[in-house]
Design brief:
Elements lengths: L1 E5 L3 H12 L3 E5 L2 H10 L2 E3 L5 E2 L5 E2 L10 E4 L6 H9 L7 E4 L6 H8 L5 E14 L2 E15 L5 H13 L3 E4 L3 H22 L3 H6 L1 H20 L8 H9 L9 H8 L9 H11 L4 H10 L12
Parallel strand pairs: 1-2, 1-6, 2-5, 3-9, 6-7, 7-8, 9-10
Antiparallel strand pairs: 3-4, 8-9
Helix pairs in contact: 3-4, 6-8, 6-9, 6-10, 6-12, 8-9, 8-11, 11-12
Length: 310
């Protein structure tokens, strides 16, 4: 397949490099020092599953430089989703199947609003990876999984082709007919982990060991489940309790990308996580006081570390 990976960070870099190693024609869209490093030496993925290096000519600086494409993997930060969709519409990749590996429940709605509905596959990924240095991505552990599914029957054939490509590359991949539910299942956990690690400024081990912060973690997830149910998503009422039990199995030092971004002074995906839960809750008439408080606490940091105010 001819595959474009928009965003060559931890997620896009890992999955894209594995697909390239399996013989697919993969082109990354990157920028800054990461782009320049890949142009010099290729993208290197360091992983317990084996290191991979892509070709130096496998990267471009913008979506408009892409040629005809079969599959586009979107792996940019959530605030770039609208821009990516608009650029795709006027590029040579405009007819490609599009699969977002981003976080959140808003991403596919943005893509489907701007692209042909049958182009967009629903999907989620499970992996721990990050840019270690320009041109180098570090894959933590061995988990690299993708779950995908069509929103429309007309996308089913494309979904099967994408599934086969991932599996051929040695990536754990499966299909699910209720992909919206799967996306929300990950979202519940993601919102809980992101909200608590960022506001408490501690990893999950500290949060789950303290009675009050543990309750905060549960309440944030329970509110997200209630919003999902009000949206028509089939989540069990006990799902937040299930996810709290899952949190007890995680390494104590585990944190979230939003916590890491907060510590580094980077922009936050808060408006699409706890902030996104609040927006949906307001629209549906569902209370979400814990997520609202998280969004309020972190509001000064949404665009990065705030400047001192005199």
């Amino acid at each position: 397949m001819r595959i474009a990976v928009i965003g060559a960070g931890g997620v896009g870099g890992c999955f894209g490099a594995r697909l390239a190693a399996a013989g697919h024609e993969v082109t990354f869209v990157a920028r800054g020092s990461h782009l320049e490093a890949i142009r010099r030496s290729g993208l290197v993925v360091r992983s317990p599953l084996g290191d991979v290096r892509t070709s130096p000519d496998s990267v471009v600086a913008s979506v408009c430089e892409l040629g005809p494409t079969d599959l586009v993997l979107v792996a940019v930060k959530l605030w770039d989703t609208e821009s990516v969709a608009e650029q795709l519409k006027s590029s040579a990749a405009r007819d490609a199947t599009v699969l977002s590996l981003q976080n959140g429940v808003h991403k596919d709605a943005v893509l489907r609003d701007r692209l042909a509905d049958e182009q967009v596959l629903g999907g989620v990924c499970f992996i721990s990876a990050f840019i270690e240095e320009p041109g180098v991505v570090r894959h933590n552990g061995t988990l690299q999984k993708v779950v995908l599914g069509p929103y429309r029957p007309g996308s089913a054939e494309a979904g099967r082709a994408v599934l086969a490509a991932f599996r051929d590359a040695g990536i754990d991949a499966e299909a699910d007919d209720d992909i919206e539910r799967v996306i929300w299942e990950k979202f519940v956990f993601l919102v809980g982990l992101s909200a608590t690690t960022a506001t408490v400024r501690q990893p999950v081990g500290v949060i789950r060991a303290n009675e009050r912060s543990r309750r905060l973690l549960y309440d944030v997830m329970a509110e997200t489940v209630a919003v999902a149910q009000a949206s028509g998503v089939r989540l069990d009422s006990g799902f937040a309790e299930d996810r709290l039990g899952f949190c007890d199995t995680l390494p104590a030092a585990m944190t979230s990308s939003m916590h890491n971004d907060l510590e580094k002074g980077n922009r936050l995906e808060l408006p699409w996580l706890s902030g996104g839960v609040v927006d949906l809750a307001d629209r549906l008439g569902v209370p979400a006081p814990r997520n609202r408080t998280v969004a309020d606490i972190l509001a000064p940091y949404v665009l990065g570390r705030p400047d001192a105010v005199s």
